[in-house]
Amino acid sequence: MKQLITNSVFIKLTISSILQSAGVWIRNMTLLFFVMDLTGGNPLAVSMLTVVQYAPIFIFSIVGGVLADRWRPKATMIYGELFSFLSILLIMAGIRMGYWQAVFVTGAISSIVSQFSQPSAAIIIKQHVPEKLISTVMAVSQTQKSLFLIGGPALGTVVFNRFGLEASIGSLLILFLLSALCLSFLPKSVHEERRDRSSFSSEFTEGFRYLQKNRHLGFFLIIFALVALGEGLLKPVEIFLVRDRLQLPVENVQWLTGSMGLGMLSGGICAGIFVRSISGNKGVIYSLFLLGGLTMIEVWSIWPWLTGFVRFLMGIAIALVQTFLSSFMLTAVEGAYIGRMNGMISPVFTGSLLIGSSISGMFLNATSLFVVYVTASFIFLIAAFFSFNIQSIKER
């Protein structure tokens, strides 16, 4: 860990990521409250905010991955922050002119920008962080995500309620500019010149050829898809677990969510401590088996204290799965293809998550809560068996 703290690239990327995350949560909560107030809580208007956040993932994720491999990642991330800055100006101008619908356009722009920034950050980590420390970087990243998952909504709510709409949006300008300034101090990116100056379309297809040639990488996509599908099945039915299995008022679902958040935070910390001591694909396999077993126990439990404890352990398991899987993938993909592989994973994960969530209710109506949870458990266990087939570059 000491080695990582002295790595200036890691520190600058972490500071930038914290500023971005704070800005994203303040923006999301501010726009949510603004749209709720303006439309009287119109469900269609509120749901559109979610649509404009998810739709660009399917459309621009692979494009962003290809361009991240073609462009200089440092410049790409800085321009991304500047575009986010401009999108906030667009919100302010639209609201002042009475065109409140500009919030949807701006939300889409911000989501599009993230599809370019995320793979670029992965490329910089691959270039400037020693491979033995990549797993620790992923653990720190997971811990940070968990912190904002717990505290992000509260941060956005406090800022909006205390300072109002214009001040909340104005604070985003400062956050995104500070993030861009922080990124400007990164070293110049190691950028390979294309020998044949190949076109975008050829590099797009080259990414799929690389995936086809290295068939073990396809297992990463399958594992990400299965994990997301299992999570998607479980998320919408949590409230029925509280009502039907625990015999508690549905309001108590917040305690399960809180337990999961604390577990994910603890899992990120645990991953930072143990991730380097578990070699190869073992971490992915162990954590997926753990997640599958805990899912089975959770639906069997009728005691609130046991369910809460299991949910806490599930949060740890999910954090470990995401950390081990992300860090192992970075070591399994050649640097020239990091962007494209990231671009392929995002729509696969998000699509599987949405599929799981969309069929969860129908599946519950057709079967039972027990069947839904057991199905999700088996999905996690199947993902664990697929994990036996993934390899790092050194192992190939």
UniProtKB/TrEMBL annotation:
<feature type="transmembrane region" description="Helical">
    <location>
        <begin position="79"/>
        <end position="97"/>
    </location>
</feature>
<feature type="transmembrane region" description="Helical">
    <location>
        <begin position="254"/>
        <end position="275"/>
    </location>
</feature>
<feature type="transmembrane region" description="Helical">
    <location>
        <begin position="46"/>
        <end position="67"/>
    </location>
</feature>
<keyword id="KW-0472">Membrane</keyword>
<feature type="transmembrane region" description="Helical">
    <location>
        <begin position="169"/>
        <end position="187"/>
    </location>
</feature>
<feature type="transmembrane region" description="Helical">
    <location>
        <begin position="9"/>
        <end position="26"/>
    </location>
</feature>
<dbReference type="GO" id="GO:0005886">
    <property type="term" value="C:plasma membrane"/>
</dbReference>
<protein>
    <submittedName>
        <fullName>MFS transporter</fullName>
    </submittedName>
</protein>
<dbReference type="InterPro" id="IPR011701">
    <property type="entry name" value="MFS"/>
</dbReference>
<dbReference type="InterPro" id="IPR036259">
    <property type="entry name" value="MFS_trans_sf"/>
</dbReference>
<keyword id="KW-0812">Transmembrane</keyword>
<feature type="transmembrane region" description="Helical">
    <location>
        <begin position="217"/>
        <end position="234"/>
    </location>
</feature>
<feature type="transmembrane region" description="Helical">
    <location>
        <begin position="309"/>
        <end position="333"/>
    </location>
</feature>
<dbReference type="GO" id="GO:0022857">
    <property type="term" value="F:transmembrane transporter activity"/>
</dbReference>
<dbReference type="Pfam" id="PF07690">
    <property type="entry name" value="MFS_1"/>
</dbReference>
<feature type="transmembrane region" description="Helical">
    <location>
        <begin position="284"/>
        <end position="303"/>
    </location>
</feature>
<keyword id="KW-1133">Transmembrane helix</keyword>
<feature type="transmembrane region" description="Helical">
    <location>
        <begin position="345"/>
        <end position="364"/>
    </location>
</feature>
<feature type="transmembrane region" description="Helical">
    <location>
        <begin position="370"/>
        <end position="390"/>
    </location>
</feature>
<keyword id="KW-1003">Cell membrane</keyword>
<keyword id="KW-0813">Transport</keyword>
